[in-house]
Design brief:
Elements (H helix, E strand, L loop, with lengths): L3 E2 L1 H8 L3 H16 L3 H7 L3 E4 L2 E5 H11 L4
Antiparallel strand pairs: 1-3, 2-3
Helix pairs in contact: 1-2, 2-3
Length: 72
């Protein structure tokens, strides 16, 4: 498995819907647009956007889950 997993794989890993993953991305993008860098970082520190797709680095996702615990 490569170092990155897709949004679908992340959703399965988190036991949530793919839409939930995209909602996190959209909240982060909205926070950035509003100029709130801290909120954007809190919402999706694990996300890396490449070619309009949300990807996750597995080790970073694990760290994020340990730190924040919930699926917000």
């Amino acid at each position: 498995m490569p170092g990155y997993i897709t949004a679908q794989q992340a959703a399965a890993y988190l036991s949530c819907s793919t839409q939930h993953i995209y909602n996190i991305r959209n909240k982060s993008k909205a926070a950035l647009k509003a100029g709130d860098q801290q909120l954007a970082k809190k919402l999706s520190p694990e996300s890396i956007k490449l070619g309009n797709k949300l990807l996750f680095e597995k080790s970073t996702l694990d760290t994020w889950l340990r730190k924040y615990g919930d699926r917000t």
